[in-house]
Amino acid sequence: MKNIGFLLVFLLLTACGTTQMVQSPETPPAGPDGLKANTNGIVEVSKEVNFTDANLVGGHMNYLASDKLKGRDTGSEGIEMAARYIENRFKDYGVKPYFKTYRDTLSNYKKPAYNIVGMVLGSDSSLKDEFILIGAHYDHIGVTRPQNGDYIANGANDNASGTSTVLELARYFGTKKVNKRSLIFALFSAEEKGLLGSEHLAKKLKKMDLNLYTMLNFEMTGVPLRGKDYELFITGYDISNLAKVSNKYAGEKLIGYSSIAEENDLFKRSDNYPFHKVFGVPSHTFCGFDFTNFPHYHRPSDENSEMDFDHMARVVNKMIPVVEGIANAPNQEIKKK
Length: 337
What we know:
This protein is of the alpha/beta class. Helices cover 31% and strands 21% of the residues. Strands 4, 5, 6, 7, 10, 11, 12, 13 and 14 form a 9-stranded mixed β-sheet that branches. Strands 1-2-3 form a 3-stranded antiparallel β-sheet. It has a two-stranded antiparallel sheet with strand order 8-9. It is globular and about 55 Å long.
């Protein structure tokens, strides 16, 4: 960090990682790295680099993408098992139900189907009324045409990986309670049926007049991108400054741009899109699949054996300071362009 002038930088080492604290004068300007101090002149950015690991992430994956869930088709016994698993993890992590229960029954699907929705209330008396929604879909396509005798489309990458990412973020914020803004953790059903779960929830929350700041969605984070200098891309890269804000808090180029995502209009093909349409706030998907790095999309071969749990844990650990920074910034930094 150069040209720091009057700023004093203290690095505090913690058992899980480090916290960077930047002290500034009475009227703090934005520093050269873009960090903004709060009214007390302090900005805190946690670096929880060791919060999760491959074994913890793999624990979620080995259940959610197992054969006994039979591909988690919406309305099936398998997705009901996944729903109960997510509910129990939320309970374990101190994530409270957002509604009367964790279950949000879809109004736009013929069979009984549920989003699972929890919340960690913010700690700041003013900022807690602003909500960040962190989501992923937990359904998949169920059984399909056999491939080498295997007919179960386990959906490890699509999207047990995104679900596991959200569960580990929920574990962090649910147990540590370090967020000033309130966080909603939503696992969507019926994404594979046309984004029905997220569409239902977006409309329901809009009718409830939810003060939604931004929606952060996770999709197919199970394997690394190839030949890239970043871990994930966001869909709709040019619609807001989310990538820039994310990289600031990550302290590196964590999020990049994908021309393939733009060419395939991926912004409109995941659960961020209904929130973009209904609320008009920055709503993006963090994704690690660009059609070049994973040949098993919607096939029975999308199995845990193809996943990189170390990579998944690294993504979670790097996303923690991003979400925490966004949740705790004194002003809403993410802006639509």
